[in-house]
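The records we work with from here on pair a chain with its fold. Taken together, the tokens spell out the fold as the letters spell out the chain. The record below shows the convention in full.
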Amino acid sequence: MKLYAETRGDPNRDKIQQLSENLNLSENQVYKWFWDTKQKNEKNYQEMEKNGGSPMRLSPLNVHG
């Protein structure tokens, strides 16, 4: 999750390639993890906003701040 916060959920191609090599995963797998995590965070953000909660409490990463 630290990597997601560092890239703000939008890693560049070099970062994806680096993670792919370091984690022994395909670039598609790394990209998919970021994409899935971004979708989950956006959904949670919308639900929090709809329910009157503070979106800042959405994630310990505080990626929407």
